[in-house]
Amino acid sequence: MKFFKKSLFFILIFSIIFSVVPVNDLHADEPTQRIVVIDDNSLVHSEDVDMTLSLLTALISSSIDEMNTDVFIGSSDLGKRLPRSLSKSDLSQLRNYLTLSSNQGNNFIYDGYNLTSDLISFLSNNEVPSGTEIFWFTRGFNSSENKVDVSLVSQLFEPFSNNEWRLKIVSLPTSTQYSREVMQEISKSANGHFFDVISLEHFSLLLEKITNISMEKQLDNFGKPNTKSFTSVSIPPSSSSFSVNIIRDKADMVGEIFDPLGQKINKNQQNVDIIETPNLVMINIDNPEPGNWMVQSISEDNSRISIFSKVQHHLNLNLLNEPPIPVGEEYRIFAELKIRNEISGLNGSWIDAVVTWSDNATEVFQLKDDGLLTDEKANDGVFSGVIDTRKVQGINNVDLNLNWADIGTILVVSDSFKTEYYPVVEIQTNEKLDFYPDNEVEIARINITKDGYPYLTKSENINAILKDDLGENVDVVISPLRNIDQDKAWEFLIKAFPKKSGQFDLQVSLNEEYLGRNYKFDTSKFPLSFELKILETPVPYMQYISWTLISLMIISSSVYGFWRFRLPNPRGVLIDSNGELIVDFSNVKRKLWRKIIYPNIVYSTELDNLLIENIRFLFSTDNAIYLIFDSDTSSLGLRINSKPARVKNLLTEDTSIGMGGKLYYFSPTVTESSELWARKTV
């Protein structure tokens, strides 16, 4: 019976705790009612009373203003004792209420079965809505009492799960191990939750559940008697509240707060609210002055004191959403600061962006709102800075640390951005290029790649600007080296039409719609410089000579051809007195140069079988044939037709030529064989 009684109390207590919602974090499923049940047996020991008072204070003080907390104290007939509805205005009298309503010193144990029945009857008769949170503060059962089989009584807790009443049992510091185990099983039977506050550490965790506020631990002083510990807390501008919870083992342990001017905070200040219990001191400061505040704890023995804080402000910081950022490039990123949901600047502030890249490398970049360098406008709430992305794609985490004036970091927000490989332009050219006037010159070849692989695009997506040393533009033409797919290529040629020599700068950009971004890869920051030199047009001397020679050869050939055409070929024969053929002029084997130069003259030196020297045979254009000899040879007795020869002698049919006992006969037309000539001369 005692077991059930404690179970019901636990349910009531847990309901109240869970229903408390922080002012700045209301949930849509906020319960409409909270109930706390505290049995008499839980208020016997002073440490249990102190803990109950601290938890109940936190529960009521963190409730929304329009909602009260129904508290039952004692295990007598709940149907006859109405609960007392408590609000924040009752906090100062809460200890007196607990003292008057409890039965301290009375060790009488009420029947748990009756308590369970009475509680369920009360919840049903008063139509307590589903979702009501019921907190039960209890010490549970003593190990000296009869053991309780939870499975036998679990059916009594079915109404809690059926009606969706949320039972939450809190085991107080003096509970025995057996009681803790039993109460934990009971909470499971009721589909509820179990909390243990056996230590200060457990109490701080439960306090976070009660208030629904996650606080940051600032100090934790224990095991160091007669010591002071302190630390600073940065309060940013536009803060609505500064909340501090001091959790301590003993009421005489001290925690203090000092504002940026060093003034100690006290409850007499208009914007300060302090609620103090034996184990918990709750301090709330409305609209705190921005700056560095200090919290301090003092411990005189080995007891423990911890200080937690929470700053509520109206600052919101985030990266501006963008498509993936190109890898391996300098890129400008933006972060937006909102104050009370409005984009607003904060004088003297900047952001340290700690980027953890996808390969776990870490770098820090600074974003500013000063209107200088990469920032467009000062103090407009949009921070900007340039980051040098690594050549690794993936999801990159970033911590945005908002810093302000001399305070330091006042806000840390985690965000992320994605880096992706984008198309890039690779340029190939020479440092010096030569060309002739009025000619186009190939100044560069460009390749479009993505992560080292070809990327197809159209030539109209590529823009090239060529400037001379005076900054004037020079006409260029971009053409694909070869199209691969639908007028797309990845290799292109750039040709220019410069008018003069000098130093030139080439800028190439790629404008492409890629991954939802109007992406532009631009080399304007690092233009490619090279020299173009116009070559002087050479005088074509060799060409002139060649043409002259060719012309002369053609003319000479023509003249020679005409001249040669008029000259007759050698003809006729010479027969000796024995009728043997000595010379057939049409078949004389002559040297080529003699045939070319003297085509119609045959020299005696060319006739091996002719025993007459220093004579030549001239075949005239008038079809006459002459024998010509030098006058110096007349002494040799050269005779033509038995008469002394002259220098130039006409040879006709059967002309005889004799000298030195040798006689030859010439015939210009006869070509018979030597036998015929022999017969003729015999």
Characterization of the model:
The structure is a single chain. Strands 3-2-1-4-5-6 form a 6-stranded mixed sheet, sandwiched between helices. With 682 residues, the protein is an alpha+beta fold. It is rod-shaped. 31% of the residues are buried. The chain starts with a helix and ends with a helix. The chain has 5 domains: 2-210, Rossmann fold, CATH 3.40.50; 215-313, Jelly Rolls (Sandwich), CATH 2.60.120.380; 315-420, Immunoglobulin-like, CATH 2.60.40; 426-534, Immunoglobulins (Immunoglobulin-like, Sandwich), CATH 2.60.40; 573-681, Tumour Suppressor Smad4 (Sandwich), CATH 2.60.200.20. It is built from 11 helices and 44 strands. Mean pLDDT is 79; it is low at 1-29, 76-80, 104-111 and 677-682.
Core attributes:
single chain; 682 residues; alpha+beta; Rossmann fold; Jelly Rolls; 5 domains; 6-stranded mixed sheet; 19% helix; rod-shaped; disordered N terminus; disordered C terminus
Proper CATH architecture of the largest domain: 3-Layer(aba) Sandwich
Strand content: 35-45%
Question: Regions with pLDDT < 50 over 5+ consecutive residues?
Answer: 1-29, 76-80, 104-111, 677-682
CATH fold call of the largest domain? Rossmann fold
Rounded Rg: 60 Å
Per DSSP E runs of 2 or more residues, the count of β-strands stands at 44
Q: Give the domain tally.
A: 5
Query: Structural class of the helices, strands and pairings?
Result: alpha+beta
Straight-line distance between termini: 180 Å
- Tally of individual helices: 11
The amount of helix comes to: 10-25%
Instruction: Enumerate the strands of the largest sheet in spatial order, edge to edge or round the barrel.
Output: 3-2-1-4-5-6
